[in-house]
Every structure is written in structure tokens, then in C-alpha cells.
Design brief:
The chain is of the alpha+beta class. Helices cover 55% and strands 10% of the residues. The chain has helices spanning 2-9, 11-32, 43-58, 88-93, 99-126, 129-140, 143-148, 153-174, 181-191, 195-215, 221-237, 239-249, 267-273, 285-293, 301-316, 323-326, 341-361, 365-395, 444-451, 533-569; strands at 37-39, 413-415, 454-457, 460-463, 467-469, 472-479, 483-490, 495-499, 502-504, 507-508, 513-518, 521-529. The protein has a 5-stranded antiparallel β-sheet.
């Protein structure tokens, strides 16, 4: 009886979540029916990381640290300094599905996660079902998010958790501060996806914090302490991400993605592109319409704050802001100003959902039902309009040519299952040289010598053929005399070198690779990455923090009772 009552109480939630599930499935099937993958922009960077994880899992290795089968087999730390946790489902799907279907299965999982988290967050914020449905549709099928889902997967994943992050921040600052764990969990999930997004989130947090301070004449101490607690717990949750930065990045002269604003879009170009078809940097026209006219309906201080945050985010995305002056500051780390569109979509979708729901609820019952039933169709139409040009290209693919490893960049092309294995002989379009030691970036000749596997034996060039293993590159060299050998394997602080079964001391060459002294005769050199012992402690501490949060959320009354008893005993 209790279950029936619960179902009856949440029947609207179940109905709306069914709508959202159907919309997510249909949008994924629309792409899957091409039986192709479209390789462009950052796509090859991320698919190479997924392939590395998959191959390591096949080898029985759970963790991936360096690229030894992809990224030209250079041992680059694309996994040490760029989170990859959310690529595990994609890699695991490779065991049961073709490469094409594995990707679309993962795409569906991420879309479902987005609609469910969006719905939950808005339901918690508004306490109403209809605004939650509308928000989940508007936010999930925002054209900029659809664009991210074609190639820019780190940011694509991060966008999934933005509603939860901002819900948590709202709870701590303005409403029920006991729900601080939303903020800690949401922040950690974003960090496990895309670190640049954390910086953007903090920018908006600072704006909201200042508004809170000045509008409410300060911040209560209890709320401030909950804010600190959220941040502290979040840091513990993401320790496995932080530790490699401490051990192998800070002070180690390792490069990262190129800082500075590489591209920004003009206000009018962004405005007009949002009314066009095809994927790209844009918002949906109905969100733009609300940004332009929403002031006619908005009531309440908090709604006005959200509205102006949306306007600010749209402005930040364009050249209205003097990005040429900010490019070399910390704000230049954003790289692409279009990233602010995700935040604009978040704020604009929240308000559009609220006021559209109010308008629908004033309609007669039959018109309400018809309008609600049509809402998922609007989302799918937006998705189709954003993707139909790319889908058309994907249906008319051309076979991918076979090339020698490391010699060419991957062209912009549609990939079938039959061509998938050829991908990894190409250099990735963007990010091939990210996270190389800075010495390697001194000249293009040094970079080329690494990806083409040139070793230097006493200064003489020699082409090598590395054998790939899980986080391991093995070289076979036969030397006539004791020699100084500069291998084409990138060297980090925790890189380990074993020669003929014995660990040896090595140096870092002038091109940022392993430099060692080898004896005459046959040499089997294994270059691997061995994390600092604290890395594994960090994993255990992080897991304990996740378990603590689970018990705190679901068993907090019982936990508090036991803590009181413990304190009384002490």
C-alpha cells in the first residue's frame, strides 16, 4: 500500500521522466542510424584516450597514466593531467558493442544523466514538476550542448553536472544549508570531467557571493562554514586528480593546453547564428527570446539575479568583453569564450521553464495536456535542426586511408567500424602535444622527432619501434659499445626505466624524453609510469569520502545519534 501511495504521489514525475527518457533515446538513435562517427575538432583526442583505457582494461590494468598505444606511442601524460573517469563506461561498452555503437551507447548514458539530473535539480529548486520537465528539455537540448556532444567531450560531460553544482550553491547561500553536500558532490563530478569548467563555475560563484554579501548585508557564519565544508569535502573527493598535478606537474616544466583566448565570437554573429541550422556556437532562439524579453515577466529578487547572470554569461561569450586585454590573465585560461554559453543556457533555461510553466498552467486542461505532450517534440526538433547537416555528411562517408604511424593529422571525416582501427595511426587534430615536457616545445623538429620515434644513440638518429603495453613502452636496442641513448619516450617525475630487468637511473633529455646510459650488447628498455605511493592513498581517501557522503545523506539521523553517544562517552 505504501508503495502504491508513493507511486501515486510521484505519478507526474514518472510520466515526465518517461517523456525525457524517450527524448534522450530518440535523439541518440537519430545519430546512431548513420552507423558512423564524425571525427573532427577534439574528437580524436578523446577517442584516443578511450581506446587507451579500453586496451589497458583488456590487459587487466584498471588505471591508465600515459598513452602507449595512442597519441603516437610517446608515453604522453594525457591521463595524468586530464580527468578520464567518465570515459570508463564508453570503454566498457567496447567489450560488448562495436566501436560505433559503443560511442552512441555512451552518448545515450550521458544524455540520460543530463535530463535526470536537470529534472531533479529543478524539482528541488522550484518544487514543481512542470518547470522541471521544461528545464530538463531546454537545457539538455540547448544547441551549444548538442555541439559539445559531437567532439568536445570533457566540457560535454561537465555540463551534465552544472545544475547540481548551482543547486548546491543556492542551497548553502540562500536556502537549506544542510544540503551542502549537493555542492560538494556536484563540484567533484565536474572536476572529474573538465577542470577548466571548475574555473568558470568559480567565476559565477564569486559574482553570486558578492551579490549575497551586499544584498543581504553579509553572510551568516553557519552558511560560511557549510561553504568551507563543501569545498573541503570536494577536495578530498577529487584527491586522485589533484595528486598527479602535485607530483608531476607543479614545478616540473610540463606544458598544458595552450593558454590564452584562441577564439571569441562577435555579439551579432552569435545572435544571428542562433537562428540558423546546423551545429555550432549558439543558443536556441527561444532562450534568446527570453533573454531579450524576459524582463517583462520577471518577478522577485532571485529571479532578477538569475536573469542578469544569464545576460552576463551571454556577454562574456562574445567580443563585447575586451578579451584581447584579458587573454594573458587568469581569465585567458578559458581558451574559448563560447564556454560561457553553457552557463547562459543554464540560467536562461531555468527562468524560461518557470515562466512558461506558469503560462501553461493558466490554460484549460486539454490545452495544457496538448502543450505538455508537445514539449519533448520541441526538444527533438531543436536537436534535429542542430545535427541534420552533420548527419547528412555522416551518411555519405569515405573510407579512411591507412597511413604510417605519426605522419599525418586525422582529417575531418566520417568513420565506419571498418575504419576505426586506422584512427590511431594518425596524430590527433588538437592536443597531440598537450602535456609534453616544455623542452619538447622548443622546436617543431623536436616534436616531430618524438612522434616519429627517433632515438639518438650518441647523437646519431635511429628509428625505433616501441612495443606497447599497459602504461609501458618497450624498446629493443643492440649497441656496439656503452652509449648515451635518448629515447622517444616522454619523461615525467615518476617515470621509471628498467633495462634488462633492472631499474636504472635516467635523466631528462633536451627534448623532454628519457636519457640513459646503456651498456654494449642487447638492451631491453622498459619505460613506464609508476605513481607516487600517495596516489593510491588518495584513491582510498577519496573512496572513503564518497562512502561518508552516502551514509551521511541516507543515514544521517542514525549517524548523528551515534555521534552524540560517542561525544557523551568522550
Amino acid at each position: 500500500m505504501a508503495i502504491k501511495n508513493k507511486i501515486h504521489k510521484h505519478r507526474l514525475d514518472l510520466l515526465y521522466l518517461t517523456f525525457l527518457t524517450l527524448a534522450a533515446v530518440l535523439s541518440s538513435l537519430y545519430l546512431q542510424q548513420t552507423h558512423s562517427l564524425y571525427a573532427w575538432s577534439d574528437w580524436s583526442f578523446h577517442v584516443s584516450r578511450v581506446e587507451e583505457i579500453y586496451q589497458n582494461l583488456k590487459s587487466g590494468q584498471l588505471f591508465t597514466y600515459i598513452a602507449t598505444r595512442t597519441f603516437s606511442k610517446t608515453g604522453v601524460g594525457s591521463f595524468l593531467f586530464y580527468p578520464y573517469f567518465f570515459f570508463y563506461p564508453w570503454a566498457l561498452l567496447r567489450f560488448i558493442a562495436s566501436p560505433v555503437n559503443a560511442f552512441y551507447g555512451w552518448y545515450l548514458l550521458m544524455t540520460l544523466m543530463t535530463v535526470y539530473l536537470s529534472y531533479f535539480s529543478m524539482k528541488r529548486f522550484s518544487r514543481e514538476c512542470l518547470p522541471s520537465l521544461i528545464f530538463a528539455l531546454l537545457y539538455t537540448f540547448t544547441p551549444y550542448r548538442i555541439y559539445l556532444g559531437t567532439a568536445v567531450f570533457g566540457e560535454f560531460i561537465a555540463v551534465t553536472f552544472l545544475p547540481l553544482v548551482f543547486l548546491g550553491y543556492y542551497e548553502v547561500l540562500f536556502r537549506n544549508q544542510k544540503k551542502w553536500y549537493y555542492l560538494a558532490i556536484g563540484g567533484a563530478l565536474v572536476a572529474y570531467a573538465h577542470l577548466v569548467s571548475i574555473m568558470l563555475i568559480l567565476e559565477f560563484f564569486l559574482i553570486i557571493f558578492l551579490i549575497k554579501l551586499f544584498s543581504d548585508h553579509g553572510l551568516e557564519l553557519s552558511r560560511f562554514l557549510r561553504l568551507l565544508l563543501s569545498g573541503l569535502i570536494c577536495l578530498v573527493l577529487i584527491l586522485p586528480i589533484i595528486v598527479p598535478f602535485i607530483t608531476d606537474f607543479l614545478g616540473q616544466d610540463v606544458s598544458s593546453a595552450k593558454p590564452g583566448i584562441s577564439y571569441s565570437i562577435s555579439f551579432f554573429k552569435l545572435l544571428f547564428s542562433s537562428f540558423g541550422f546546423g551545429r555550432g556556437w549558439k543558443l536556441s532562439f527561444y532562450l534568446l527570446a527570453f533573454l531579450a524579453l524576459g524582463w517583462l515577466w520577471i518577478k522577485g529578487t532571485k529571479d532578477w539575479i538569475i536573469y542578469w547572470l544569464g545576460i552576463a554569461a551571454f556577454t562574456f561569450a562574445t567580443t563585447i568583453l575586451p578579451w584581447n586585454l584579458l587573454s594573458k590573465t587568469i581569465f585567458g585560461e578559458v581558451q574559448l569564450t563560447a564556454r560561457y554559453l553553457s552557463y547562459c543556457a543554464l540560467f536562461a533555461s531555468a527562468l524560461t521553464a518557470k515562466y512558461l510553466a506558469l503560462a501553461i498552467e493558466k490554460l484549460p486542461d486539454k490545452k495544457q495536456q496538448a502543450m505538455i505532450g508537445f514539449l519533448p517534440v520541441i526538444g527533438l526538433l531543436t536537436f534535429g535542426a542542430s545535427m541534420y547537416l552533420q548527419v547528412d555528411v555522416m551518411k555519405a562517408h569515405q573510407p579512411l586511408a591507412s597511413v604510417q604511424a605519426g605522419t599525418q593529422k586525422l582529417p575531418q571525416v566520417a568513420i565506419k567500424n571498418a575504419d576505426y582501427h586506422k584512427l590511431f595511426n594518425y596524430r590527433v587534430v588538437y592536443g597531440e602535444y598537450d602535456y609534453y615536457p616544455k623542452q619538447a616545445h622548443a622546436s617543431s623538429a623536436k616534436l616531430q622527432s618524438i612522434v616519429k620515434h627517433y632515438a639518438y644513440v650518441n647523437g646519431q638518429k635511429q628509428i625505433t619501434n616501441p612495443i606497447s603495453g599497459a602504461n609501458l613502452l618497450t624498446y629493443h636496442l643492440k649497441l656496439k659499445k656503452r652509449s648515451s641513448v635518448n629515447l622517444p619516450a616522454l619523461a615525467y617525475h615518476n617515470t621509471s626505466v628498467i633495462v634488462n630487468g633492472e631499474k636504472i637511473h635516467h635523466q631528462i633529455s633536451t627534448r623532454g624524453t628519457v636519457l640513459c646510459q646503456l651498456s654494449a650488447g642487447k638492451n631491453i628498455i622498459s619505460v613506464s609510469y609508476q605513481p607516487a605511493s600517495f596516489y593510491f592513498w588518495a584513491i582510498w581517501l577519496s573512496l572513503l569520502a564518497w562512502l561518508f557522503l552516502f551514509f551521511y545523506i541516507y543515514y544521517s539521523p542514525l549517524l548523528k545519534k551515534h555521534l552524540r553517544v560517542l561525544f557523551q562517552c568522550l
